[in-house]
Amino acid sequence: MNYSEALLSIGAVFLRPDEPFTWASGIKSPIYCDNRLILSAPEQRYEIEHGLAEQVRAHFPDCEMLMGTATAGIAHAALVADIMGLPMGYVRSSSKSHGRNNQIEGKLTKGARVVVIEDLISTGGSCLEVVHALRDAGAEVLGVISIFTYGLACATDAFNAAGVKSHSLVCLDELVGDAVRYGYIREEQRGMVLAFRDSLNR
């Protein structure tokens, strides 16, 4: 399955060089990948969620539980957990201010071998906050599986420093290459997007 073509075919990839998107980190980007649109596309959703399940099986065969990142990773974690017959939960960005004041939702036992499901990786900061919350709760975080990564060096460095393995279905180079190949963008637009990414990697 060509997962980048699946994302392109449902219009999940947006190019806006004149009015860049702002990431949570504050970085201004000419490209944005909206993986929430996968949920509304049954054919592509089936392929991508099964692809995520295969990534978990291949890289983390000892996984006992999936944890989604709030909010974008929650639905994907739930779907993949259903495919794999595993328990799942999710991690909030901070503890609730009411009820049981949970940050981690779902029954997590100490020592559980957990894989985090994320929709995309930019700087990696928000995903690593989830990893740290799970570790603080006593989980053994095996790694992270995501749908898409921008391939930023700062994310790779942060994951390596935290001792976290990360794998994605689609990387930026593959995505923009297929976008040119299938006529979604022009060659000069590919160069612009990769130049943006490379400028952040210097």
What's this, in brief?
The protein is built from seven helices and ten strands.
User: How confident is the prediction overall: mean pLDDT?
Assistant: 93
Shape, please?
A: globular
Relative helix content: 40-55%
Task: Estimate what percentage of residues fall within beta strands.
Answer: 15-25%
Q: Could you state the order of secondary-structure elements as H and E?
A: HEEEEHEHEEEHEHEHH
Number of beta-strand segments? 10
Structural class: alpha/beta
| Gyration radius over CA | 17 Å
Head-to-tail CA distance between termini: 33 Å
Sheet with most strands: strand arrangement: 7-6-5-8-9-10
Poorly predicted sequence stretches spanning 5 or more consecutive residues = none
What is the number of helical segments per DSSP (H or I, 4+ residues)? Answer: 7
Report the biggest beta sheet as strand number plus sense, adding barrel if it closes: 6 strands, mixed
